[in-house]
Amino acid sequence: MHAFIFDLDGVIVFTDNFHYQAWKKMADNLGIYFDEKINNRLRGVSRADSLDIILERYDGVLSIAEKAGLMEQKNNDYRCLLETMTPKDVSHEVRDTLLKLRQMGFRLAIGSSSRNAGFILEKVGLTGLFDALSDGNNITRSKPDPEVFLKAAEFLNIRPASCAVVEDAYAGIEAAKSAGMTAIGIGDAAKCDEADYRIASFCELIKIAGQLRVC
Ligand code: B16
Ligand code: MG
Q: Which atom of ligand 1 approaches the CA of 10 most closely?
């Protein structure tokens, strides 16, 4: 085992509430009911698929251009909220664990559906800790398709079977398994039966890394 591929939102940083605020503003403007429970369904889902989920409660019909405009506005509002992020938005536990994994000789990558992943990493001062970034800008298919993780492995030049994915979304665990990788569930995905490992805290990765290294 040579690499860890991390999902970003819900694993390294927590931007659900920013997504919620930005989508809520859009939904309110259109008179669509939207709450935090619906927001939970957007975890790990691409921006376009998220919009379609919110529009399930919309009676009107929107053109492709109108949908694109809504997504652009939502993203502008979301980016304004992301601007407030600082290195303090990453816990000491996450930062220390990433550093320890690097010291153990593992290569680290991000595998995120977000097109804002690079911007978020920059805001929280983590860019330099990762050897590769695979995100919403280099994929054509969303999780549960394995594309985002296969690309991360390709960028690292490491075969998929030598990669372990850390994910908070069920769709991400499915994507990792389809990619032929070890799947580690955290947060919501800590309840996912398909995961090879289920962890309650990020620092448990060190113990798993010790086991994977000898495989
Ligand atoms: P963006 P992840 C995902 O990130 C989020 O969980 C999901 O809520 C969001 O819709 C998606 O990124 C797209 O994000 O609008 O920034 O491109 O969990 O895959 O790191
Ligand atoms: Mg996630």
A: 18
